[in-house]
Amino acid sequence: MNGGGRKSKSRFTIDLSPQFQERIERLESLLESGGKANLVRDALRVYEFVAEKSLAGYKFKMIDMQGNEETLAFIEFFSPG
Fold it and tell me: 5-33 burial, b for 16+ CB within 10 Å, e for fewer?
């Protein structure tokens, strides 16, 4: 903590393409995240959860309203060995 009683923070800057900026803004609006910083924090929490569970051997599935299941493949790169 710093002298003001608040936790210290780190800042970083990233360069975003216009398309990526549009995606961030669309998600920020869709999820009503309360700002880009909150959106990034939430995204990192999800990414961390998916990575840890994938490395532990879990599979993720998407189930539509009719009960059809589909294994999500976007996380395959986390699969062990």
Answer: eeeeeeeeeeeeeeeeeeebeeebeeeeb
Q: Return the beta strands (E) in 9-68 as ranges.
A: 61-63
pLDDT at residue 27, as a whole number: 92
Distance (Å, whole) CA 35 – CA 25: 9
Please identify which residue in the block is written with the tokens 């976007």.
74
Q: How many CA atoms lie within 13 A of 52 on its CB side?
A: 6
pTM: 0.69
Q: How confident is the model over 3-62, as pLDDT tens digits?
A: 556 678 888 888 999 999 999 999 999 998 889 989 999 999 998 998 888 888 888 899
